[in-house]
User: Fold Ubiquinone/menaquinone biosynthesis C-methylase UbiE from Mesorhizobium muleiense.
Amino acid sequence: MDEPFYKTAAIGYDELFARATNSFIPSLLKAAQIAPAHRVLDVATGTGAAAQAAAIVVGPSGSVIAGDISPAMLETAKRNLKNQSITLATFDAHALPYEDCRFDAVICQLGLMFFSDPLGALSEFRRVLRPNGWTAVSVTTTPERSLFARIGAVIARCAPEKAEKLNRFFSIPDATCLHSLLHRAGFQEIYVQLETRPIKFSSFDDYFSGITKGATLSGQEYVQLAPDMQVTVREEVWRGLASPSVGEPLTIEMDVLIGSGGR
Assistant:
């Protein structure tokens, strides 16, 4: 898996993207059947929000390992996470550095669709699960039902050389695809549900501010565009959101698939 975030992206991500997506975390933890005293692995932890929520559930008798391939993300997570039951680690989701049957639950919040080999990563998740343990993952769906991935789709159209990387946002576009991946990875009792949240912003400028700071993969690619191309992308995104009036509040409905499977 590629190193997905630059240092500036980690800051922007924490300020905006995590704020908007944290409402999906309770459903993710419920799908993973996390309980007190559990040992939990959080893969692609980002800035640590899901790990923090899991640590509260498992309590002092449990433990959480929060890992990411991005050192910049882990640096931000280190500043955010104060719970002593959380251990941070750098690793690649495709080759987890843990023995078989170590964890009671493995979670991955909005990361699986970026992996170069989602099936291989899910197989690793299953390998490190104990018998009767559960994995739960959440993924984005299509551009028009995403929060910031829609910006990546616009960039991909305007700069085709970036399309392969940005189209990873939509590598798992529907419940059938996610269910198939979990099944092929060997999981049992598979459940996939679609959740929708209205994400509110004070204005389009508020919505786009994280992108201009380099937040998320879309933001990383946006800040590398030529200034005239940045203007083109911003205007197309604005039109795609039904051209909200300048300074007016903006609400975007975001769809997330949450899939789970037991070992």
